[in-house]
């Protein structure tokens, strides 16, 4: 059987309307995340005959996509076509961890004026700024209950650790700092975007970004109003490049001791629906894109903080 050929688009090679996670490799070598999304797509099911059943099974068992290293000008636009056709799967519910800052475990940044912001590198009062490799991450929220249309108007609260693996508002010395936390309201295409830094890797966890989705911005002051709580996983290739930088001391070692499959959050399926498409480089910064399917007909099931992990460069426990 012939190997399907990708179509060249202004944003890079694409197959069945989705940009390839690994632009320099064949369609059959895109990794588990891409193949599982293909399996869940009606258009993908029609195209699987060209891939061959054996190739699909092998690809689905392969490690999750590691992301590309193209320049930001060639950044992926993600899987918006899946949302438009109603074929995106629901994002797995995950723990918010012990450092959410949403009022469910101590401090509540969502009560602060100024929390709705795109650039989260500095504290809301401008008093402190987090240092690290630049990262812009974009979430595209899809309303599965309405047939897979963009979920415009929802509010997304996102937060993550510093380059040293610490969390603002909780880690020692950062109790009065509010950086790396912010809220954005999805536009008509269901998109939110944050300007931040690449998070570090602390012991016991794969590099990740937390987020909660709320019905609207007026709901963010009540954490129980969240309609989805999950985490974005960052691909290994980009992580390895970033963690070679001195600002991320300890992260490379911690990354070498864990995999997506052994992570206590992403381990169920190696983060098949949660590994972002990442492009860029250390010098110019990175861009991460993830499509997030939200189904309001199902009951949110995010649990408490997972156990395990010895803390990372910041000396903190598992988060």
UniProtKB/TrEMBL annotation:
The keyword Nucleotidyltransferase does not apply. The chain crosses the membrane at residues 45-65. Residues 68-111, 298-319 are annotated as: Disordered. It comes from the Bacteria. GO terms for molecular function: dioxygenase activity. InterPro entries: Intradiol_dOase_C, Intradiol_dOase_core, TAT_signal. Residues 68-81 have a biased composition (Low complexity). It holds the Pfam family Dioxygenase_C. Keywords: Dioxygenase, Membrane, Oxidoreductase, Transmembrane, Transmembrane helix. Gene3D superfamilies: Aromatic compound dioxygenase (2.60.130.10). Residues 106-204 form the Intradiol ring-cleavage dioxygenases domain. Residues 306-319 have a biased composition (Gly residues). This is Intradiol ring-cleavage dioxygenase.
């Amino acid at each position: 059987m012939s190997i399907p050929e990708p179509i060249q688009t202004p944003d890079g090679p694409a197959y069945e309307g989705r940009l390839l996670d690994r632009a320099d490799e064949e369609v059959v070598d895109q990794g588990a995340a891409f193949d599982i999304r293909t399996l869940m797509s009606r258009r993908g099911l029609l195209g699987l005959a060209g891939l061959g059943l054996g190739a699909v099974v092998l690809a689905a068992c392969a490690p999750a996509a590691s992301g590309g290293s193209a320049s930001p000008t060639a950044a992926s636009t993600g899987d918006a076509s899946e949302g438009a056709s109603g074929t995106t799967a629901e994002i797995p519910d995950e723990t918010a961890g012990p450092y959410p800052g949403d009022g469910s475990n101590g401090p509540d940044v969502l009560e602060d004026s100024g929390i709705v912001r795109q650039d989260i590198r500095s504290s809301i009062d401008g008093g402190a700024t987090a240092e690290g490799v630049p990262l812009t991450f974009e979430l595209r929220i899809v309303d599965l209950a309405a047939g897979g249309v963009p979920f415009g108007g929802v509010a997304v609260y996102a937060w993550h650790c510093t380059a040293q693996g610490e969390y603002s508002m909780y880690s020692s010395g950062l109790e009065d700092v509010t950086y790396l936390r912010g809220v954005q309201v999805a536009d008509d295409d269901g998109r939110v975007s944050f300007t931040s830094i690449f998070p570090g890797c602390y012991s016991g966890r794969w590099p990740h970004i937390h987020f909660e989705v709320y019905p609207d911005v007026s709901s963010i002051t009540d954490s129980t109003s969240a309609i989805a709580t999950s985490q974005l996983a960052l691909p290994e290739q980009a992580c390895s490049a970033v963690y070679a930088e001195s600002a991320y001391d300890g992260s490379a070692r911690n990354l070498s001791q864990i995999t997506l499959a052994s992570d206590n959050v992403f381990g169920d399926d190696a983060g098949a629906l949660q590994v972002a498409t990442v492009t860029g480089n250390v010098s110019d910064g990175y861009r991460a894109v993830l499509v997030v399917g939200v189904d309001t007909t199902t009951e949110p099931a995010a649990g408490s903080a997972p156990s395990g992990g010895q803390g990372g460069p910041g000396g903190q426990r598992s988060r």
